[in-house]
């Protein structure tokens, strides 16, 4: 297990505090690199996990899609919303643009601000959980919090 002093976790906690978000970062005993692992560790439904998926736009900019943990993003839906092609982002691109490793990508506190899309399916939950800068760390939030914190556009992703 890691500690709250990890740089990625500190960056997320600082961003949340600056935005007035009261949800505290929670450390999990094991790394949770998938929505299913995170849901099991937290004790919530897989769909309550806000998965952060990074795509690379044709322009070179990072595109963050925050989707419900049980959903699979249809790339064409992102292309339609963005108005330009996107491709899969490799681990190096994810680390370079977000500052986080895959499995710990938070929806906030990215090194380079991404274009953000939010899965409309997350709206149905009173509480959702997102990665907090490390595969061992998560934080709770609401759909409205997610919109406010990221400024993301709401779309159907699947």
TrEMBL record:
Superkingdom of the source?
Bacteria
Signal sequence extent: none
Name the SUPFAM superfamilies on file.
Answer: YbaK/ProRS associated domain
Any one Gene Ontology MF annotation carried by this entry is: aminoacyl-tRNA deacylase activity
Q: What is this protein called?
A: Cys-tRNA(Pro)/cys-tRNA(Cys) deacylase
Q: Which residues form the YbaK/aminoacyl-tRNA synthetase-associated domain?
A: 31-149
């Amino acid at each position: 297990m890691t500690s709250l002093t990890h740089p990625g976790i500190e960056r997320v906690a600082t961003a949340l505090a600056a935005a007035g978000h009261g949800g505290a970062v929670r450390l999990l005993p094991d790394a949770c690199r998938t929505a299913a692992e995170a849901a099991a560790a937290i004790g919530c439904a897989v769909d309550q996990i806000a998965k952060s998926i990074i795509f690379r736009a044709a322009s070179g900019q990072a595109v963050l899609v925050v989707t419900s943990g049980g959903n699979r993003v249809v790339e064409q839906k992102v292309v339609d919303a963005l108005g330009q092609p996107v491709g899969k982002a490799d681990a190096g691109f994810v680390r370079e643009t977000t500052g986080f490793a895959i499995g710990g990508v938070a929806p906030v506190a990215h090194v380079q601000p991404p274009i953000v899309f939010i899965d409309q399916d997350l709206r149905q939950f009173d509480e959702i959980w997102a990665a907090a800068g490390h595969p061992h760390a998560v934080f709770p939030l609401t759909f409205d919090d997610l919109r406010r914190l990221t400024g993301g556009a709401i779309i159907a992703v699947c």
